[in-house]
Amino acid sequence: ELLKIYIVIIFFAKGTARRKKKVVHRTATADDKKLQFSLKKLGVNNISGIEEVNMFTNQGTVIHFNNPKVQASLAANTFTITGHAETKQLTEMLPSILNQLGADSLTSLRRLAEALPKQ
């Protein structure tokens, strides 16, 4: 009990320096600059001529980028896609993405089509 009181007196007594932790606020632009610098070190190059990017998820949704900025570094096995992303359901994108679907996506599309009449 006396030890606790002694510790409180030593650390919180009048005249002792109080250490304050400096809070560093980061902005999104600072993070973007760091990311671009790291990508520059990897040696990424811009790839032009890509109009859209669709990423298919296991949940049946599509992450759709319209007119993205695509960069790649084959040596580092790194691809970056930047731009405005929209998460859409697979059924919303159906007519335009049929030629982009792989075998596993086609099976999930069949399961989705079988589930629709039941509802």
TrEMBL record:
CDD domains associated with the record: NAC_BTF3
Gene3D superfamilies found in the cross-reference section: Nascent polypeptide-associated complex domain
Ranges of residues in domain NAC-A/B: 29-94
PANTHER family per the UniProt record, alphabetical: TRANSCRIPTION FACTOR BTF3 FAMILY MEMBER
Family named by the database record: Belongs to the NAC-beta family.
Name recorded for this polypeptide: Transcription factor BTF3
Organism per entry: Alaudala cheleensis (Asian short-toed lark)
Gene, per the UniProt record: Btf3_1
